[in-house]
Amino acid sequence: MTHNSAAHKTAAHNSAAHKTAVPKFGIIGCGNISRFHFNSLEKAGADIVHIADIDEKAAAPWVKKFNARFSSDYTRLIEDPEVTVVSILVGSSLHYDIASRAIEAGKDVICEKTMMNNAAEAEAIVRKVQASDQLFFTGFMKRFFPAVMKAKELLPSLGRLFSARVRTYQPWGNFFEADNAGDFGFVLGNYGGAVTKCAGSHMLDMMMHLLGRPESLFAHVDYIPETQFDRKTAILFTYPEGMTVLFEAAAHPLKKIGYERNGWDEYIEIDGVKGRLELHTVLWDHPENNAPLLVHYDNERETAVEYRGDPVNPFDDEMKYILHCLTARQEGTPDAVDGFNTDMVIEMAASSAAGRKPITLDWKGL
Ligand SMILES: NC(=O)c1ccc[n+]([C@@H]2O[C@H](COP(=O)([O-])OP(=O)(O)OC[C@H]3O[C@@H](n4cnc5c(N)ncnc54)[C@H](O)[C@@H]3O)[C@@H](O)[C@H]2O)c1
């Protein structure tokens, strides 16, 4: 990465003498994503002491399972002196308020992706984190697939990079011949956008995790007419020395395409003078079906090696890692800057598309 998040805190910050040694979790939001956090935190041995949701029924099974306190008002959870880390698992419109309050209350934060509603909010959160003693993690769990870690390890062997291609196609249905988003309309209110935020954000993070931050972008965003529902986004990114990345996200009706032949068609391909890496991910909420596939083409040995590990749930490794960082008072990634990077790219892509112009990215010194 082009940022070094570990560098900005002092040893005094990291000592965090005021913290209890054992992280105590407060979880806000018991919807779709929460079961992955609860189950993986439980496997990691985390202590969940407080749970909040405006829907008491949604929280009830988890409150019972972990013998936790319950609040319908998340500010009560943030004020709870026993809670040392707040997990934000609600829709994106609430992320800023909760994260700000939690940091100000001296809590560490785990924030689901996308981190904030826009780049300005994301920048403000990074600055609050950097001025605090707290640790902050953003929920790009796909980085924790073993195949992604292997890709990161193999990347230097590709030599000088000249091109990459990133695709995230998800089988949501046919929005190209519909005049509204039907059952998917809720994503605008819940997640602040459609395919770019819901699907694209993970692969934009993957791109920057592997390749660093681009210098500029030029985007086209295709919406269902008369709506804010982005059904397809194409972005050309430029990097130093002529390196380019072609990115595409789409909600589509094709049921059998992709590595798993289930309509989930998500990959990153990176080309260097000494070889190519090709990484295919798997359906996000069923990682137990298959492991992601990594192929390494080595141009010098003239080999193509396929890495197919056992299927693993990336949330398990993500939560284990975060718990370790929290316990050791050690910064880790993906962090707030990583969340900012993706929020910035998504906002600038929309802006580029609206103005039909390329944009030089201003990373605000972060
Ligand atoms: N990492 C991933 O792949 C992934 C996948 C899905 C969702 N997400 C992210 O997770 C977050 C939550 O998404 P979801 O699909 O679980 O949403 P959801 O709508 O299924 O669940 C949200 C929960 O928050 C509760 N809630 C709403 N307002 C609240 C408030 N004011 N106080 C307390 N609780 C409140 C709701 O009652 C609901 O139980 C979003 O940021 C989303 O982008 C990430």
Report Rg.
Answer: 20 Å
Which kinds of small molecule does this entry bind, naming each only once? nicotinamide-adenine-dinucleotide
CATH topology-level fold name of the largest domain: Dihydrodipicolinate Reductase, domain 2
Strand content: 15-25%
Largest sheet: 9 strands, mixed
End-to-end CA span: 12 Å
- What's the total number of strands? 15
Per CATH, the class of the largest domain reads: Alpha Beta
Order of helices and strands: HEHEHEHEHEHEHEHHEEEEEEEHHE
Looking at CATH, the homologous superfamily of the largest domain is Dihydrodipicolinate Reductase, domain 2
Word description of this protein:
The longest helix has 20 residues, at 336-355. The protein has 366 residues and is of the alpha/beta class. It has a 9-stranded mixed beta sheet. Strands 3-2-1-4-5-6 form a 6-stranded parallel beta sheet, with helices on both faces. The relative contact order is 0.16. The protein has 11 helices and 15 strands. α2 (34-44) packs across α10 (314-328), α6 runs antiparallel to α11 and α9 packs across α11 (336-355). It has helices at 11-15, 34-44, 56-66, 74-79, 95-104, 119-130, 146-154, 186-191, 195-211, 314-328, 336-355, and strands at 24-28, 47-52, 69-71, 85-88, 108-111, 136-138, 161-170, 216-223, 230-238, 244-251, 265-272, 275-280, 293-298, 303-307, 359-360. The chain binds nicotinamide-adenine-dinucleotide. Nicotinamide-adenine-dinucleotide binds next to α8.
